[in-house]
Amino acid sequence: MKAKLSYDNDADMGYIYLQANKESSIVATEELEENALISLDIDQKKTIEGIELAGDEAAALREMLYKGETYTKTDHPYSKTGHGFSLRISEKAVKSRYRVSGITFCFAEDEYKGFVGFNLDVPEE
Fold first, then answer.
1. Which of 20, 32, 10 lies closest to 85, judged by CA?
2. Could you identify which of 19, 20, 46, 108 might form a hypothetical disulfide with 92, taking C-beta atoms 3.0 to 4.6 angstroms apart as the criterion?
3. Neighbouring residues of 57: CB distance < 8 A, sequence distance ≥ 6
4. What is the DSSP string of 33-63?
């Protein structure tokens, strides 16, 4: 399982496609309740399909992907955990977490700032 990551330098925006190989139809975009610089793209099944990062919250993604181009896109494998998958875009320690719809967002600072990645639950079958 892989995530697709992209960053647009002109817009200062990053994007994480949660399932790189899946086609989906986004029907809504909602700001993360605790951090307005993070938006969630939601499909018709009410599943989060992508994470949009703006401004300061896109910094770690920009640092990870930046290669001197305006726009960079790459696939990154998730790390398997006991109950799902994890993706980190920074090696900073996690100080705060916020959970929504089976995703735990991880932040390097208190008050849900400094996005460093997430843990994605996989439902048991």
1. 20
2. 108
3. 14, 35, 37, 38, 113, 114, 115
4. TTEEEEEEEEETTS-EEEEEEEGGGGHHHHH
> Are residues 118 and 102 in contact, defined by beta-carbon separation less than 8 angstroms?
no
Is 68 or 50 the better-scoring residue by pLDDT?
Answer: 50
Please give the model's pTM, rounded to 2 decimal places: 0.84
Q: Which two tokens stand for residue 46?
A: 């009410």
Average pLDDT, the chain: 84
pLDDT value at position 3? 80
For 74-111, the pLDDT digits (tens) are: 655 556 666 778 888 888 999 999 999 889 999 999 99
